[in-house]
Each structure stands twice: as structure tokens, then as C-alpha cells.
């Protein structure tokens, strides 16, 4: 059975897409730590552990995430974009890109933001516009 992230990448479940290419997909986390919190996934590999990926997929995912992070930083006011790979909550490799003002912005124990669909869409549109400029 496909993971929820595979279903999102295939368009079976709606998401706030911020970037996509043939092999990878990036979308806003629906339970964000901060505005602009983005998830980056491989589209065609469902392994739940990033270090199980073959080298081509791993390097491609990292390169794609780097470009998405540049778009996030251009679209969302922040000092930098933090990177976190946990992989325990969804059994599909994914990278968290988190706009940072301070290190505590990466505390996954804190209460998640509640944004309206309009806020999510506005953020996604801003990041996508920056991604398309790169």
C-alpha cells in the first residue's frame, strides 16, 4: 500500500506544493513548526530510512532540497533554513526544511502552528515563485 507521501506526490491527496521535478516533490508541512516548514521527498522510492536510498536518489534528493531551501529562504523571512531528517512519523524518507530565526524553531515537541488554507496557499505560492526563478 502506498505511503501517504506517495499519494500526495501522485496528486491523490491534496498538498501545498512548493516544488517538483521528475524524481522529487516538496510541499508544506500541514503541522508546521514555523511558517514555511517544508517537506522534501523522493517520488519513486518509499523506503523510510534516508541512508537506505541508493546513491543516485540520495544525492538527487539532497540537491533538490538545497534548491528548495534557497527558495524557502527567499520567500520566508528567516536567518537560514534548518535541515532535519527524523523519519519516524511517516514511513517514507523525507527532509524537513525549517525557516529559522533561532535554534528553538526546530523543537518538534512544541505546539504546531495552525494556519488557514489561505495562509498555507500564500506561503506555498511564494516559495514556488522563488523556486521557479532558480
Description:
This protein has helices spanning 4-9, 55-75, 117-133, and strands at residues 17-20, 24-28, 38-42, 80-84, 95-100. Helix 2 (55-75) crosses helix 3 (117-133). It is globular and about 35 Å long. Strand 1 (17-20) and strand 2 (24-28) form a beta hairpin. The chain contains 3 helices and 5 strands, in the order αβββαββα. A 5-stranded antiparallel β-sheet has the order 1-2-3-5-4. It is an alpha+beta fold. The termini are far apart. The model has no long low-confidence stretch (mean pLDDT 96). The longest helix has 21 residues, at 55-75.
The geometry reads as globular
Strand content: 15-25%
Order of strands across the main sheet: 1-2-3-5-4
List low-confidence stretches.
Answer: none
What's the end-to-end separation, in Å? Answer: 35 Å
Helix content: 25-40%
Please render the helix and strand layout as text.
Layout: H1 4-9, E1 17-20, E2 24-28, E3 38-42, H2 55-75, E4 80-84, E5 95-100, H3 117-133
Antiparallel strand pairs: 1-2, 2-3, 3-5, 4-5
Structure in a nutshell:
With 134 residues, this protein is α+β, with helices and mostly antiparallel strands. It has three helices and five strands.
Amino acid at each position: 500500500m502506498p505511503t501517504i507521501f506517495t499519494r500526495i506526490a501522485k496528486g491523490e491527496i491534496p498538498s501545498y506544493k512548493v516544488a517538483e521535478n521528475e524524481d522529487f516533490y516538496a510541499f508544506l508541512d500541514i503541522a508546521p513548526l514555523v511558517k514555511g516548514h517544508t517537506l522534501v521527498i523522493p517520488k519513486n522510492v518509499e523506503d523510510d530510512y534516508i541512508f537506505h536510498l541508493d546513491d543516485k536518489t540520495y544525492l538527487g534528493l539532497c540537491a533538490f532540497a538545497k534548491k528548495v531551501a534557497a527558495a524557502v529562504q527567499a520567500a520566508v523571512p528567516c536567518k537560514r533554513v534548518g535541515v532535519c531528517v527524523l523519519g519516524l512519523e511517516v514511513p517514507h524518507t523525507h527532509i524537513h526544511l525549517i525557516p529559522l530565526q533561532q535554534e528553538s524553531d526546530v523543537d518538534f515537541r512544541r505546539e504546531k502552528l495552525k494556519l488557514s488554507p489561505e495562509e498555507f496557499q500564500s506561503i506555498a505560492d511564494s516559495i514556488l515563485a522563488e523556486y521557479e526563478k532558480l
